Amino acid sequence: MSDNGQTIERALRRRGVRLTRARRAVLDALLQTERHLTAAQVHSLGRQSCPSLSLASVYRTLALLQSLGHVQPVHGDDECQSYAIAPAAHSHQLICSSCGMTYAFSECDLSALVAEMEARTGFRIDAHLLELRGLCPKCRDT
Amino acid sequence: MSDNGQTIERALRRRGVRLTRARRAVLDALLQTERHLTAAQVHSLGRQSCPSLSLASVYRTLALLQSLGHVQPVHGDDECQSYAIAPAAHSHQLICSSCGMTYAFSECDLSALVAEMEARTGFRIDAHLLELRGLCPKCRDT
DNA sequence: GTAAGTGCAAACCTTTTGCAATCGG
DNA sequence: CCGATTGCAAAAGGTTTGCACTTAC
C-alpha cells in the first residue's frame, strides 16, 4: 500500500477505529485508482478485494473517512457525489476533467483576496473551498 | 425587482426563453432572499407569488438558470444541493456559514498558484472553483 | 394558433436505517 | 469475549420523467 495508505491506517488505529476488511477495501479502491470515485464505483472496485462488501458499508466508510479528513468530496457543477483521498487536513484538489485523476495539495495563499473581500463586504472569512481543473499530463498529450 | 433581476430577465428574453410565472417565481425567490436555497426552499418561497408552482418546475428552472450561468450551486461539505444567484458568467460565492447569505464576486487572481501547480504536476489548468466562507456583518455582531 | 412550459403522479436512484449475524482486538 | 461493524432488505429522500393541459409570444 502507498505511503498515504500507511499514514491513514496509522491515524485510524490511533483513533481506535477498527481496520476491517470492508474499510481496507474502500481505502484501497481510492488509493489505487488515484481518481475520484462515486460510492457505486468504490463498491464495485472494492469487491475485488472484499467480495462481500456492501454498498451500505461503502457509504458508512466514506462518511467515516470524510469526518476524519482522509477523504474529500469532489465538487464541480454536477459531480458532487465523488470522493478522493485527502492526505492533509486542509487540502484542495487538482482534478483532471478527462480521466478524473486527482492530485491533492495544501498550498493556497488567498490572504490578499480574503483581505480584500473582508474589507469590501464586512464578512469575517474563516474558510475556503478551492478546486482546480484541467488536463493531467497523460490526457493532455492524447 | 433588483438590477440583477432585470439583467437576467433581459438575458433570458434575448435567448428566446419564455418568461413564465413559474420561472419568475423561482428567480424572485433567489433574488429576494439573497441566500442559497434548496429546491424545496425555492418551492415553498416561490409559492407565495405563484401558488400553483410545482417542485418539478423548480428543478427544471434551476437547471435552466444554471445552464445559462445565472444561478450557481453552493458546495461545502454537505450542502451541495443549494443554489444562489450568479450575476456574472465566472463568479464565486462568499457565503455566511450562519445565515446562508451569499455575496457573489468575480475577482480571483490565482495565476501564481495555477502556474506553480502546473509546473509541479504537468497538468494544464483551465478552470477553478472557489468559495469563501465566514460570518456576514449581521451574524458577526450577534 | 402553436410550440414551449406546467402540474401531477409515477418512476427512479441514491442514500440511510433497523436488525441479526459476524468479526477485530 | 464483547462491542463495533457488517450485510441485507426495506424505507426514505430527493430528482426526473411521461403526459395531458395551459400559457407566452
What this model shows, in words?
With 142 residues, chain A is of the alpha+beta class. The first copy, chain A, folds into two domains: 1-88, Arc Repressor Mutant, subunit A (Orthogonal Bundle); 89-142, Dna Ligase, domain 1. Chain A is 43% helix and 22% strand. Chain A is built from six helices and six strands, in the order ααβααββββαβα. Chain A has helices at residues 3-14, 21-33, 39-46, 55-67, 111-121, 137-140, and strands at 37-38, 71-74, 82-85, 92-96, 102-105, 124-135. A three-stranded antiparallel beta sheet of chain A has the order 1-3-2. In chain A, strands 5-4-6 form a three-stranded mixed beta sheet. In chain A, a hairpin with a 7-residue loop joins β2 (71-74) and β3. In chain A, α2 packs across α3 and α3 crosses α4. The two termini of chain A are 29 Å apart. The model of chain A has no long low-confidence stretch (mean pLDDT 95). Chain A binds chain B through residues 66, 73, 75-77, 80, 94, 96-97, 103, 105, 107-110, 112-114, 116-118, 121-137, 140, and chain B through 66, 73, 75-77, 80, 94, 96-97, 103, 105, 107-110, 112-114, 116-118, 121-137, 140. β6 of chain A pairs antiparallel with β6 of chain B. The first copy, chain A, binds a DNA duplex (25 and 25 nucleotides) through residues 17-23, 38-40, 52-57, 59-60, 81.
For the structure shown, list the relevant keywords.
homodimer; 142 residues; alpha+beta; Arc Repressor Mutant, subunit A; Dna Ligase, domain 1; 2 domains; 3-stranded antiparallel β-sheet; 3-stranded mixed β-sheet; 6 helices; 6 strands; DNA-binding
